[in-house]
Amino acid sequence: MDVVFLNGEYLPSEQAHLSVDDRGFLFGDGVYEVTPVYGGEPFRLDRHMARLRRGLRGLGIDYDVTGMKGIHREILSRNELKDEEMAVVYFQVTRGAAPRTHHFPPSDTAPTVYAYARRFARREAGEWNRGSSAITIPDSRWARTDIKTLQLLPSVLAQETARRREANDAIFVRDGIAVEGAHSNLFFVRDGVLLTHPASNQILPGITREAILELAGEAGIPVEERPLPSEELPEVSEVFLTGSTTEVRPVVRIDGRPVGDGRPGPVTRTLHGRFLDRIAEECGVALQTVA
Ligand code: PDD
Asked: What pLDDT score was predicted for residue 290?
């Protein structure tokens, strides 16, 4: 039975109830985090907390994130996930429940805090080696995608379009620039240089993205953070996506055309291997690596 956290209580998910006046329900007025957990140990939870704090501040929601660590520990333990290779903790804060007005509710409205923890099946080596296929799609999101808000409809529609076209992922293109995936960040390799969109208001500053940039530096791989016009796509030799549940995912076809030789490339493999090693180091767990 799933045990969830809601407004200070741990309870079976069937017993967790929200007000129909909750602003998360009515407006998508809130923020969330998804933190990957390996062998019971959250990977870089401090970075997720810092990003949530920044998002809350950006939206003017008054919630102190310092209790998040304890909630993560407790919910993993109550769901008996300490020994799983991988799990995720979903953590969401909304502006709370109050009669519907577009402007903020009274200042004493308590935020709604919700979390769950579930087992997560990592991609198997065979699937990783086959790589992923993606479509490009116009980015119809708002202009502050650096805040991880609950308003995910453009991502939902993009991902559903990908599924209908029998692709695995969707890549958002804004003003001719391939910015990021529908739920992941985007990297390219061109002439041996690792490229990714700068951490502006047009992408979510991914915790995995940050780790990959750090690992590329350590591996001596040259990095450029610059916008990549989608018309340059035919010239890139490798493409991969990164994210808390995506880890490092090679993209081998975009809009039906192969990327490079149509197989995961050497830079992707190197960074993926180093990423798993870093997780193993920081979380104290051995992970199944990819051949
Ligand atoms: N998504 N960009 C977008 C739009 C995202 O939604 C995500 C994560 C990322 C990667 O960020 P990180 O490396 O910190 O997970 C980039 C989460 C996993 C989700 O919505 O489920």
From this structure: 61
DSSP 59-93: HT----GGGHHHHHHHHHHHTT-TT-SEEEEEEEE
In 83-197, the DSSP E strands lie at: 86-94, 112-119, 132-138, 169-174, 177-181, 185-190, 193-196
pLDDT for res 289: 67
Please tell me whether residue 228 adopts helix, strand or coil conformation. strand
Q: What does the pLDDT read at residue 291? A: 47
In angstroms, what is the span from residue 185 Cα to ligand 1's centroid? 7
For the chain, residues with pLDDT lower than 70 are 289-291
Q: What are the pocket residues of ligand 1 if the criterion is a CB atom closer than 6 Å to any ligand atom?
A: 34, 180, 183-185, 204, 206-209, 242-245
Q: Which fold has domain 3-119?
A: D-amino Acid Aminotransferase; Chain A, domain 1 (3.30.470)
Q: Is 176 helix (H, G, I), strand (E, B) or coil?
A: coil
d(CA 274, CA 277): 5
Q: Could you tell me the CATH superfamily of domain 125-283?
A: D-amino Acid Aminotransferase, subunit A, domain 2 (3.20.10.10)
The answer to whether the pTM exceeds 0.90 is yes
Length of the chain: 291
Of all protein residues, whose CA lies closest to atom 9 belonging to ligand 1? 184
Q: Is the separation of the CB atoms in 13 and 118 below 8 Å?
A: no
| Residues annotated catalytic, as ranges | 148
